[in-house]
Write a structure and sequence with these properties.
With 149 residues, the chain is α/β, with parallel strands linked by helices. The chain has 6 helices and 5 strands, in the order H-H-E-H-E-H-E-H-E-E-H. The protein has one domain: D-Maltodextrin-Binding Protein, domain 2 (3-Layer(aba) Sandwich), CATH 3.40.190.
C-alpha cells in the first residue's frame, strides 16, 4: 500500500523530473540559456532531484553539494573563487540562495537571474527550490544578454 508520504514524494519528484528537459534546454522552457563561463555549480542535498538537475543543466562544470551548513563550502571553495570574480550557478533551496546573496555583496557579485523550480511547502518546513546565477555586478549587461539569448 502506498503511504501519503510516498505519494507526495513521487509527485514532487515527478514534477521536478518533468522540469529537467526544460531546464536542460535552457531554463524557463527554453527562454534562458546558461553562460559558458560558469565555474561552479551548487546543488542542495535536501532535494533529491537537485543533483540530477544540476548535472543535466550544467554538464561539464564543477558540481558541489550544499549539505546544510555553508561554512566549509564557503571557506574552502567559494571565498577563493569569488575573490577571482568567478560565476557560480546552483539549484538549491531559497534559504541557501539568501545566504549566498548576502556573502556575494562583499565580492561585488550579485544574483543576475533566478527562477523557482518547485514551490515551498511551509507545512512540511521545505523551502522553495530555485535555480540561480551569481556573477560580477559589472558584467550585468553581458550576463543578461547571454542568459536571455
Amino acid at each position: 500500500m502506498i503511504t501519503k508520504r510516498q505519494f507526495l514524494q513521487s509527485g514532487v519528484v515527478g514534477t521536478l523530473a518533468a522540469s529537467v528537459p526544460a531546464l536542460a534546454n535552457g531554463f524557463a522552457n527554453g527562454l534562458v540559456s546558461v553562460p559558458g563561463d560558469v565555474t561552479r555549480v551548487l546543488h542542495d542535498t535536501r532535494f533529491p532531484a537537485s543533483k540530477a538537475l544540476a548535472g543535466s543543466v550544467f554538464m561539464a562544470r564543477n558540481v558541489s553539494p550544499v549539505t546544510g551548513d555553508l561554512t566549509s563550502l564557503w571557506r574552502d571553495t567559494l571565498m577563493g573563487s569569488w575573490q577571482q570574480q568567478a560565476i557560480t550557478a546552483g539549484i538549491t533551496g531559497d534559504d541557501v540562495l539568501f545566504c549566498l546573496t548576502q556573502f556575494s555583496r562583499d565580492y561585488r557579485l550579485r544574483v543576475h537571474w533566478q527562477t523557482e523550480v518547485s514551490p515551498a511547502q511551509p507545512d512540511r518546513n521545505i523551502p522553495a527550490l530555485v535555480a540561480w546565477l551569481i556573477a560580477p555586478a559589472s558584467q550585468s549587461t553581458n550576463i543578461m544578454n547571454e542568459v536571455i539569448s
